[in-house]
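Thread: "does anyone have the structure for this chain?"

Original post by V.I.:
We have the sequence but no experimental structure in hand. Need at least a predicted one for the grant figures.
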Amino acid sequence: MAGGDHTDRTDVAGGKFLEHHEHAAASMGDNDHDLHDNEAGQPGALEQVTRTIKVSMDDRMRFTPDQLNFSTGETVRFLVRNDGKIRHEMVIGSQSELKEHAAMMRTNPAMRHTDPNMISLAPGERSELIWKFDQPGTFEFACLVPGHLEAGMSGKVNVQ
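Reply from O.Q.:
Generated one for you, tokens below.
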């Protein structure tokens, strides 16, 4: 991840995860590509996590799993792994937010994400994202590396 905003942590299986720290106050507003008001929720706190979901990304331009269901108010810890040979990312937002951000990525393909609703991982990297789904609705997560969303690299989140 760009910016060096992570620390190594070993999970119970002995693999390395990059721990994604919440830094919304430090980064929000500093970059013109930030999603300031995310319709899908807000950064979550580790002590409020109610569920942990493992998500893998790969070069077939797919997430596994690609359909998720949560309750309103649930705080989820995503353990995200890039199983591909190229960079992938996971960005949570509404369909309109993701499409708008994808357009920005096409004009600046070297952009790397550090916002709390985004993880950008090199091949073989792992990281975590903690997110609180604070309102009902249908949201998405997607890889916004240019061409990846267009190739179908997205998933649905249903919050009830």
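V.I.: this helps a lot. The domain at 2-159 is CATH 2.60.40.420 (Immunoglobulin-like).
O.Q.: and Residues 49 and 90 are 19 Å apart (CA to CA).
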